[in-house]
Amino acid sequence: MKNIVIGQYIPGEGFFYRLDPRTKIISVIVLMVAVFLLDSIYHLLVASGVAMILLLVGKISIGRVFRGLRPLLVLLVFTFVFQILFNRQGAILVNETLTLSATSIVGVLFLTVLWRMLARRGKFRFLLLLMYLGGLYLAMRYLTFWWQITTFPFVIYEDGVTMSIFVIVRLVVIITLSTVLTLTTKPTDLTQGLEKLMRPLKVIGIRSEDFALIISISLRFIPTILDEANKIMSAQASRGADFAEGKLKDKIKQVISLLVPMFIIAFKRSEELADAMESRNFVPGKPRSRINELVFNRLDVLTSVFVVMCLTGSILIRVL
Amino acid sequence: MGIQFRQVSYHYPSGSINFYPAISDISLSIAAKGEFIAIVGHTGSGKSTLAQHMNALIFPTSGEVEIFGSVVSKRRDKKVKYNDLRQKVGLVFQFPEYQLFEETVEKDIMFGPINFKVPVEEAREIAKKAIVMVGLDESYLRRNPFNLSGGEKRRVAIAGILALDPEILVLDEPTSGLDPQGKKQMMELFKDIQDKTGKTIILITHDMDLVYEHTSRVIVLNDGLLVYDGSPDALFKRDDLAKYHLNYPETIRVLSAIKERFGVDIDVYQKDAISAANVIRLVMGQ
Question: What is the CATH number of the domain that holds B22?
Fold first, then answer.
């Protein structure tokens, strides 16, 4: 619980840091649309090449971006497997018969146990998962002796492979784009940018300032509240509440022992915050000045031109 | 026995590269009975981190802590029941009133004992004893803890730890945020608990008056290092306390000022206000 990082902003120098948040937000959205418009794997590879170049130009470490991808690994693997197994178009690449027999069941169980044992050590988890899946395939393909219970076909079509690669590259490019945005923009700048961008919504009665304020206050208080939660957890652990073990009934009680104080603290904090804001003359809905006004500069213009070029490019590719 | 620290260091896990240790290379030993110890040091010197090692809430990054015979080190040992150590060493956090959550004081005090598998009836008896021990009467047991005053809440929270019947009681700034009267009562409460039960009590505090008047041993931390471990009398006779960002007790400060201002020869090392007043009276009589 201690290691949660809210907002992935890391201070740094470089091209992306000097851009106006508004430009960055709009650019990311436009580039995402452009990526979605591409419908061939080759164009998409070009797009990912462009994304790579952008990372290099912006001096953002690629490792850092891929670390941002890690939480989505499960999703990516799932999409990949799903596409490969269920897409039934194009030429057939692999056509095998898998057998569920006494030996292959033993093999599968053995592999599962082995996989869990090794995964517990926490190293190369992803590689282990891939090896496990490969092992499952091999076990069911070749261990066919004794009591064959049932057999089923295992077919992979060409489109399945291309589509799965296509979907994954598309997801990776899109996530990379948004990671660049969050890596190089302070949460406060991000909300300020959003506020400015949403200003036209005033016409339909949405006050963007309020919205931005809500976002920035929540971002500001997430670490504080987590800190308090940690303290309360330690305090209750000192009274024997073991959050890791125990029966379900005990656990519910222990969660309550955390939740009630947290609610009280949150309410107390929000009241204090409201007082502090009012005593500094904050009036909801009244215009406020900023210390740092956002200004567009030449970089923003250049970026906009580049982004528009990308979009027209992908529209042209799509249409032609 | 009791608690033994052997070259304990602790780093808080953090994303940044240049993390620094909260405490480093601390070795000390605390007896299971009869000690009254103060841990002092400026903000961020590692006092609370040290305290949380005492009941295995956090595990040292290096070195080991031995708590009543169980060794706590970096690696979690499956054979050690860490939860049971928390019954042996009761830790009262700073602002413990925030940990109250039940609808009656009685239930809240019973929470700890029941977690340690004490039968409900027995826990109820323990709650009765605990509430009296912290200087409130049994009528409080039926009240809602959220309707109590700040000082009362704190007493209830301390009763919740006392109900565990720990061998050693560790309190993290128990008097912060209380008025002078409340502070005095709180200190008398701890003194009383120690007189009656002989438990070792460890206080984390900023209040040098309390340290000087009540405790028998002081542990001074400075930037995560143990810089002094000994009697308060010897500590306050030193003249380099500013190095550790510590103040002298009020009595010493006032009497030293009088000594300097009027050039009289008096013993400035008076532990409490009354004896200090007596010294002043003597001077005035001369």
Answer: 3.40.50.300
